[in-house]
Automatic annotation (TrEMBL):
Name of the protein: Alpha/beta fold hydrolase
InterPro entries noted in UniProt: AB_hydrolase_1, AB_hydrolase_fold, DNA-binding_regulatory
Any GO molecular function: hydrolase activity
Domain AB hydrolase-1 residue range list: 90-203
Species the sequence originates in: Aerococcus kribbianus
């Protein structure tokens, strides 16, 4: 009888070890997938498509290209700084997934022409960034705060504006939420086609994996979330920007597009509805796709920005 009990205990132990091993490997694969959404090489290749605009719009203004130390790790944050001698304030800009600090050139020039100094920087796994992990804004938002602190030192007077597009919109929302509890550096938040709950997009990928392998979505999410928490102390639930938006107290202006297939219109609406005050504005551009309006209609977008920022 004792031998049978011992055999059962050993068998259960082996099953538990096997389950732990499978969970570790599955979690690691999920983690690698969701934290490496793009590579520096891919973003630098994409940057080439914007080089002509960058050279025409930004280079003549003699931007400062440098880096600052991240408060979160042993890496630097590369940035571009357009100093406006007559600056009425400063704008910090956060690019979307696949972009870099240079791909924002047209919008950087828009803000510069409005009389602002402008800073754009490379997010994780983008451009020249040394940060290793994509976390849909959760950890990236700390870099945003570091850039904001630098920006605040550069402009003594005038508002500090935070602008983010798409994936960078989620980062900007989370940075603004963190800022409310810390230094309160940001005066205005502007978003274009922002990403809200990234889990909505990741679940679509999980479904493809499930269809191909038969591994349940619930197990993929559980093991990936567990690995993510152990490795980075970030939960999948943390990646919903609309949950962070309910902490924002500053004025917010959001544009989105009714034909957006990447961050559908409801995402901007989710963020808008979560903001707990009435100094918020949402404009849906009819007939446009993802982030198209701001680049194809710069004069109209500039007029909207000027009205929101109450510029003369």
């Amino acid at each position: 009888m004792k031998k049978w009990k011992l055999a059962i205990v050993i068998l259960l132990g082996l099953i538990m070890v096997a389950f732990a091993g499978v969970t570790y490997l599955t979690g690691q694969e999920v983690f690698n997938g969701v934290t490496h959404l793009t590579s520096q090489e891919e973003t630098l290749e994409n940057e080439k498509h914007y080089q002509e605009g960058y050279e025409n719009l930004i280079v003549p203004l003699e931007p400062e290209s440098a880096s600052l130390s991240s408060s979160q790790g042993n890496y630097d944050i590369p940035y571009l700084y357009l100093e406006n001698d007559q600056a009425k304030g400063i704008v910090v800009m956060v690019h979307g997934l696949g972009g870099t600090k240079k791909t924002l050139a047209p919008i950087m020039r828009t803000f510069y022409d409005m009389g602002y100094s402008v800073i754009s920087y490379d997010q994780a796994n983008s451009g020249q960034s040394q940060a290793n992990y994509n976390t849909f804004g959760v950890l990236e938002s700390y870099d945003t705060l570091d850039v904001l602190a630098f920006a605040q030192e550069e402009v003594a007077d005038g508002p500090v504006v935070l602008w983010g597009e798409s994936y960078g919109g989620a980062t900007a929302v989370m940075a603004a939420a963190r800022d409310q509890e810390r230094d309160q550096m940001i005066d205005y938040l502007i978003l274009d086609c922002p990403l809200a709950d990234s889990n909505e997009m990741i679940d679509q990928v999980f479904q493809l994996v499930t269809d191909e392998t038969g591994i349940p979505i619930s197990y993929l999410k559980w093991s990936g979330d567990l690995f993510n928490r152990v490795k980075l102390n970030v939960r999948f639930a943390d990646r919903d920007a609309s949950e962070w938006a309910n902490q924002i107290t500053i004025p917010v202006f959001i544009t989105n597009a009714d034909q957006d297939q990447l961050t559908p219109p409801h995402m901007a609406q989710d963020i808008y509805q979560a903001i707990p005050h009435d100094q918020k504005y949402l404009e849906t551009m009819q007939g446009y796709g993802h982030c198209e309006f701001t680049y194809s209609e710069p004069e109209a977008y500039q007029a909207m920005l000027a009205e929101f920022l109450q510029d003369d």
